[in-house]
Design a protein that fits this description.
37% helix; 6-stranded antiparallel β-sheet; 6 helices; 195 residues; single chain; 18% strand
Length: 195
């Protein structure tokens, strides 16, 4: 089973655990400080960030988060000043199965669906996935647009990123474990110690 939670990389001196409800502070794990160039720090949050935590971290510097879906894919969010917040997805096609959960192959009585009933259910599911895919592709920067945003984010954050084309290759890349793609992206954004 893969990781469910959020990876946080930020310039904030605030420990992420301080932003968590008291009962959830044990869910925050600091990533090895020696791997991050100063003033960056990294955290694993096993139960995800509470609302407003990313904005609180961004008060003192740039922030990256990757909300990981069972290591299959991630919602990647970046905040810098003056550009503000933007997001994209890593391993996008594999994220879709977490955003639109497949139905159970059973009817209301618990009997297994077969034949045309199963085909009809599968067609409805594929149609819903296609609608979500289309909506996200129309509203979330992906591919080259995401690479351009990532490059701007890096420069605003005091980093020297790789070329937009190299960022594009990583953002459109796939990995069995999306965490590997996240760390590769950090390296291309100018944090080589994090890769």
């Amino acid at each position: 089973m893969g990781f469910w939670g959020t990876l946080v990389v930020c310039q904030s001196p605030k420990p992420v655990a301080e932003l968590m409800p008291a009962g959830k502070r044990a869910d925050v794990e600091s990533m090895d400080d020696s791997r991050w160039p100063d003033p960056w720090r990294g955290w694993r949050v096993w139960d995800g960030l509470p609302d407003g935590a990313c904005d609180s971290l961004a008060e003192t510097g740039s922030v990256l988060t990757a909300e990981i879906y069972d290591s299959d894919g991630a919602r990647f969010t970046a905040v810098s000043h003056p550009s503000g917040r933007w997001m994209t997805y890593l391993n996008f096609e594999r994220v879709l199965s977490h955003l639109v959960l497949p139905p159970a192959p059973f009817d209301a009585d618990g009997d297994e669906l077969t034949g045309s009933a199963l085909d009809e259910q599968n067609a409805a599911y594929q149609s819903e996935v296609a609608q979500v895919r289309q909506r996200l592709l129309a509203t979330v920067p992906m591919g080259l647009a995401a690479a351009e945003r990532a490059s701007a984010w890096a420069y605003e954050s005091g980093l020297t990123p790789a070329s937009v084309d190299e960022l594009h290759l990583v953002l459109d890349g796939t990995e069995l474990f999306v965490e590997e793609l996240f760390y590769r992206l950090l390296g291309r954004l100018g944090m080589p110690l994090a890769s």
